[in-house]
Amino acid sequence: MPPDTNGSRMTTPPGDGSASDGAEPAPAWTPPDSAPPSADVSAPPTQAPPWTTPPSAGPSMSGPPVGVRRRTNRFAIVAIVTGVLGLVLFAVGFAVAALVQTGRRGEKGRGLAIGGLAASLVWVAAIAAVVTVGPLSSGSSGPGVRADGRVAVTAMRPGDCFSELVETPDGMFAKPLPCTTPHRGELSASTELSDVPYPGVREARDRAWTACRERTEFLERSRYGEDLELHVAPPDEDAWKTGDRTVRCLMRYTGSGLLPSALDQTIETRTQYTSQLSPGDCIKEWGEYDDQPLIPCTKEHEYEMLGFSTLHGGEYPGDDKLEQKALDACTDLAREVWGGDPPSDIDIAFAGPDRFRWEQQMRTVVCLVTGRDGPLKRSVVPH
């Protein structure tokens, strides 16, 4: 039975738990010849898997956890709005007031207040950069738009699309385009390398390639996968020394014509075993068996995977206490993922063990998020 996502009580879904140093270009990314055996879900298992529908006496999910439906402090809302608009003095004042009141009253909004302060700092830094550095020259590798319209990939974000991609001694540059128009490629992912002393140009590049292959592996399921070429922009030594170890992973389409949409929208619906779900996987609706139907997060979906949590304890605590333990565990995970309270337009959901699975030492909880006012239409989980 699918969970009720809007009432005061929601039922648990079933279950328990590139390079700038002039080196030769790296080979094109190629999907594996065949899918792993674990991906064969053409028929339901002959024996009930550990994630099937729970019995009627199994745990259910209560309303949203404490902290999700708390009132949002009004000063926090004003702080983030004024911060985004560049009204720095107002933003700082409202943010400080919000931080004080949220601490006293137990209201939501601490993250918004901090966001208002962060936005103010961005405005101050941007103004200072313009005053002290001035506009970028055509040979600059820093963030911003060059005279020829190209942008340093270090100024791009995952999901940004482009029409051209060039590599120069100063870095890698692309000409941005909306993903809704025909384009040549996309910055598909970014990730941080380990916090170690700068390992040298070659080693940094090798680590960047390894990280980007892992982060873009899912694009092998795109109908354009065979013609996607991976380009990697690792951090240089200067960036590394300032603490910026971000790697940008770009996919350039080498086939005929252009890409018509964002790459995640070119992936066909597939299924994945519940135990193999990853944070950020979007689930169309909770599957009746152990395999879950995944779709691009830009399409309507019922759930998004948050992560796994393991419960501890001796004897079975009872349905109500188990429900609360699972909900508390997923709420803690959500706060860890977002660095505070999760967005106000989502609820926490989970699939947890019943008595039988608990006694069999099967204590894994699948933590999910679902839309508070209807299906999700975008990815909401940071990953």
From TrEMBL:
InterPro entries: Septum_form. Residues 1-66 are annotated as: Disordered. The keyword Glycoprotein does not apply. Residues 159-367 form the Septum formation-related domain. The chain crosses the membrane at residues 75-100, 112-136. Residues 36-45 have a biased composition (Low complexity). This is Septum formation-related domain-containing protein. The lineage of its organism: Bacteria, Bacillati, Actinomycetota, Actinomycetes, Streptosporangiales.
